[in-house]
Amino acid sequence: MKFLNKKSLTALALTLVMGLTGCGKAPEGVVATVNDENISEEKFVMQYAAQRNQYVLMAGTNDILEEMSHDGNKTIDETIKEYTLKNLEQMEILKQDAAKSNITVDQSVVDKQIEEVQTKLGGEEAFREQLSKIGSSPEFYKSYLEDINLMDNYYKGKVKELEPSEEDIKKYYEEHKNEFFTAKASHILVEDEKTAKEIKKELDKGANFEKLAKEKSIEPAAKESGGNLGEFPNDAMDKDFSTAIANMKAGEISDPVKTQYGYHIIKLDEKKERTFDEIKDSLKEELIKNNFTEYIEKLQNDAKIKEYLDYKKEIEIPEEYKLKELPELDKQKAEEAKKEEGKEETKDSKEEAKDDKKEESKDKKEDKKTEK
């Protein structure tokens, strides 16, 4: 169902590093505690089933759950359990902090969102039917919307608390002034460091930069532009690329600079400092994000978390949270199996027919012998 896929459950919590966790004897019906607040097994199973069903639906087969995850230490199913629990722990940390700041959810907003979805689907009955097909329920969907709305309100509320003053922004600008610029530059992009170093040696000996860019750069536009990037602000480029330019002077050619795209040789033609007034607003937004990230990391690091869940243990999923329809690939496999079975039956029938003909021919020969 599309409306559940617009925002995945992983978006309910911020994907930041979790604080230290401890293990111990599990209280009845509890999978974890956060600052002595329990996360119930019932809530975990509801979230886990939703995540699990999404994986199966996206993959098109239940077999995905038994495959190994990227780290090779857990199955996909075990990873889903772990990820679900971490998300619930993160959400609980933020909910506790939201309560301290009197940040709440407006239930009328949530009810309106549910009504809108029901209307699009053709009414409450159709809404329940669609949820049931993907192993979900109205209770889960309401909880899902409440969490999203709470996080939205939480971020807006904390942004106001963490907003930097004009003096703070100015101070940061002065301390990092060389990082804010507009530049005119050219580059040669190659796949490996060895090639980049060889090109740099040629340039040091006086080779023409534009000519080498046209001949050796893997950037598609380089054959026409000679590697010329035109004029650009510092935040328009890859961070490592911009950092290299920040430490260069006009007329310089850099050593190989590694970015996510490969290795660059940069030729800086011109660099101008951006004024405080030019970047004040964008710098303010950046500092707000930095302050918020630091604030959340501190909350998580200070949180006392205990986990009681065994990821390897199979979890029984209630009938209401199970997928009611087999994924397409499972259907396809079943159909292919039936076809193969049909082929085998046809093959067996043909073999039997051949055997019958052989027997019939043998009997006729015997009858002729007897007549003679």
UniProtKB/TrEMBL annotation:
<keyword id="KW-0413">Isomerase</keyword>
<feature type="domain" description="PpiC">
    <location>
        <begin position="184"/>
        <end position="270"/>
    </location>
</feature>
<dbReference type="InterPro" id="IPR050245">
    <property type="entry name" value="PrsA_foldase"/>
</dbReference>
<protein>
    <recommendedName>
        <fullName>peptidylprolyl isomerase</fullName>
        <ecNumber>5.2.1.8</ecNumber>
    </recommendedName>
</protein>
<feature type="signal peptide">
    <location>
        <begin position="1"/>
        <end position="26"/>
    </location>
</feature>
<dbReference type="Pfam" id="PF13145">
    <property type="entry name" value="Rotamase_2"/>
</dbReference>
<keyword id="KW-0697">Rotamase</keyword>
<dbReference type="Pfam" id="PF13624">
    <property type="entry name" value="SurA_N_3"/>
</dbReference>
<dbReference type="InterPro" id="IPR000297">
    <property type="entry name" value="PPIase_PpiC"/>
</dbReference>
<feature type="region of interest" description="Disordered">
    <location>
        <begin position="322"/>
        <end position="372"/>
    </location>
</feature>
<dbReference type="InterPro" id="IPR046357">
    <property type="entry name" value="PPIase_dom_sf"/>
</dbReference>
<keyword id="KW-0732">Signal</keyword>
<dbReference type="InterPro" id="IPR027304">
    <property type="entry name" value="Trigger_fact/SurA_dom_sf"/>
</dbReference>
